[in-house]
Amino acid sequence: MTKIQMVDLHTQYQQIKPEIDEAIQKVLDTTTFVKGPQVTEFSGALAAWLPVKHVITTGNGTDALQIALMALGLKKGDEVITPDFTFIATAEVVALLGLTPVVVDVDKDTMNMNVEAVKRAITDKTKAIVPVHLFGQCADMEPLLKIAEEHNLYIVEDACQAIGAEYIFSDGTRKKAGTIGHIGCTSFFPSKNLGCYGDGGAIFTDDDELANRMQAIANHGMTVRYHHDIVGVNSRLDSIQAAVLNVKLRHLDEYTELRQQAAEQYDKALNGNQHLIIPARAPYSTHVFHQYTLQLVDTDRDALRQHLSEAGIPAMVYYPVPLHRQKAYHDARYSDTDFPVSNYLSNCVLSLPMHTCLSNEQINYITDNVIANIE
Ligand SMILES: *Cc1c(COP(=O)(O)O)cnc(C)c1O
């Protein structure tokens, strides 16, 4: 059995090595390292695959979020609602732009933004909601879209963990994560579901005007060469990363299936154990399993992690500290008791290895060891 890793990028690379090597070699041969044809090819291919009208590539997922928020023309002190239980980048860009992040509690089963908490958090200053599709499953977008319409708010989706996940509306229509709100953002960090071999990100929108603004902001606020009508940043996906992504996008549906199969196998072995809650599947979303995240019940998480680690099995806690408990985001308006669910989750979640190259043997070994070491 090969060594078990949280994410096995090496085995995946070996499987697609000829395609990847050829794609990278082409960039080397032409030396168009920035703004090469691979970048245009990739944005076009991703826009068609999602589908969405505009894909603007960026240097990483955090930049994508920042550029999206910059394009909304918000003022200092305007409030942006984000979930309390997420990666820091979601709230970080809000704070960085002088806007006020307002964090809300999440649902216990899906671990995504709680719709009622969003309603309670809305004030006169609220201008946008940034739902995160955590661990690969969409937040409940239909009620969020309704709230946004009622209060005239923007929705910027953080789809960094959920590329390919489909939201299912009550009339049965489906839209992919990142194409549901006004703007969607994703990351191509190597361990993400569609990962490159360095840093990368993208912004999605169907809105022509927002697309033009974001394109300009990502390029120093420039529309006509050396004329800067708005303040921008420099954020680009480079040609080598785009070349890798062109290859991996062709495999993405197959990769998603492999993740879903691994998750089903985990479920079969772990479901019904009184010390474990397997990941909930929301009726309104498919799950692309960026992470396979258990909730432990009456179990010493550190002891379990230690046992697993001794057996050669990595397991991670995403996320151990909710945003409202982070020093940099301290806000006197909150009390710790406003976030019972994210506090609970941060104490009991455990993510098992999840990637596209897990063998049956590895999964059986992992689940046997989990069951043998919980009590
Ligand atoms: C990875 C991630 C980001 C940031 O992406 P980078 O490419 O690392 O900047 C933002 N939000 C969430 C939820 C993420 O998982």
Describe what is shown at a glance.
The protein is α/β, with parallel strands linked by helices and 375 residues long. The protein contains eleven helices and 14 strands. Pyridoxal-5'-phosphate is lined by residues 60-62, 86-87, 89-90, 132, 158, 160-161, 187, 189, 199, 201.
Structure description:
This protein has about 375 residues and is of the alpha/beta class. The chain has helices spanning about 10-30, 35-50, 60-70, 90-95, 115-120, 140-150, 210-220, 240-270, 300-310, 340-350, 360-375, and strands at about 55-60, 80-85, 100-105, 125-130, 155-160, 165-170, 175, 185, 200-205, 220-225, 225-230, 275, 290-295, 350. The strands form four sheets. A seven-stranded mixed β-sheet has the order 1-9-8-5-4-2-3, with helices on both faces. Strands 12-13-14 form a three-stranded antiparallel β-sheet. Strands 6-7 form a two-stranded antiparallel sheet. α3 crosses α7 (about 210-220) and α8 (about 240-270) crosses α11. The relative contact order is 0.17. The model has no long low-confidence stretch (mean pLDDT about 95). Pyridoxal-5'-phosphate (PLP) binds near residues 132 and 189.
